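One example copied in:
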Amino acid sequence: MDVQTLHKILVSVAALLLLGLLVRLYESLVKKPARVRGRLTKQGITGPPPVFLLGNILELRKARSSAGSSAKETTQITHDYAEGLLPFFQQWREKYGKFFTFSLGTKQILHVTRGDLVKEITQSASINLGRPSYHRKELGPLFGAGILTSNGPLWQYQKKILGPELHTDKVKGMTNLIWESTMMLLDSWNSRIEEEGGVADIYIDQDLLEISGDVIARACFGSNYSNGKQIFSKLNILKEAMSRRIFSIGLPGMSYLPTKNNREIWRLVKEVHTLIVNVVKERKESGHVHKDLLQTVLDGSKNSDFSGHGAEQFIVDNCKNIYLAAQETVAITASWCLLLLAANPEWQDRVRAEVVDIWGAARVPDSDMLRKVKLLTMVIQETLRLYPPGVALSREALKDLKIGGMDIPQGVNMWTMVSKLHTDPDIWGPDSYSFKPDRFANGVSGACTLPQSYLPFGFGPRSCLGQNLAMLELKMILGLILTKFTFSVSPKYVHSPVMKLVIEPKHGIHLLMKKL
């Protein structure tokens, strides 16, 4: 065979391979999304028309940019803020109703706030209604393949090993370490108040992050918790970098480009991985048997079919999941709780009186005392209603599903808008935007017409495993603060909720604190 013939054959093979690649790309990027959207359209599900390859990304980006530039910042504390965070949803709801579809690139999303569908979705126990696959890609640097993003057998295995460690009976044993961490903060606030003449203007956000970080570091690492706090610091920086990337709503594939922000993310991922691996190495070399969350994860990595690298990644991913889920939800919720109590002094007085009456002179309140503080529980529930950790909960149809009599094709994602459900007047009444803890006097079922719409900790089999620990921490931290201080809203505070990975105060929360 001469060189010219060989060259023609190679060119023909290359052309065929290129053609095959183009056909596959056309199928996955054009034909498949069109088929999925067509199946939804035939069932009467419509939405804003997508742009080739980008879907509705450009609309979302433009609307978010406009919302950011015109965001309201005020000293008046109002709780009707969701439309400012996601203005495009309000526009689409008005045009297409409470059930419509839109596209993120080639990924089809169903927006769901219709009561009957929310009820069916939240009551579904199907393993085929899982975490969105794109979360693994977008949030991979933060969560990897840990319990918050995994599906199928891996998720089931992670839940099996972590679930028992976060059960109510196990969590009760953490009251002492929560008390110790909180008392360190209260001592520092006491000193500040004395130094500033009886009243201190305190920026509470970072202090509360440190408490919740200290608690989970102790719970996870035991006596070696200082290493855990170092990992927390790196993860918080990584979280900020990820927020900048995720909510920039850029073009598909931007996460792979070596931008300044992406390079910072890649560097932090390596540093966190190394820190966790070093802690594990020290634990193994010590030869001591520990009873903490880290040991549970280590044992789980041994009792599995993971390879050496797979076992190491399993440990790193689940440690990161535990840290991020446990720290931020508690700290941000505690911040919002204290703000709402500061802005509603009558409730602050009522809850304080209840806590003092039930806890009495106890050095560390026991689990029974924590269970009995009903007014404090109602305040926490109302805070989680008005300021849920997440704006939306998302699920992906891992196989074709039927929900509410509708066929949901495999790969379609369903977004349940928590902040909208939590303030829907049809569900919560005409005072849905008011701070009114009394609505929970008879539990969630007595607070609204659709209990399934209350989703502060998620829903179904994928609900938050750490919610028992979160509630224990919130009751202990808030109760101890109420017994030591009285507080009001500082003139420095500017009300401007923003959406990062959770809903948080843009400028933090300043409170005027006085000792009782």
Summary: The first helix runs from residue 3 to 42.
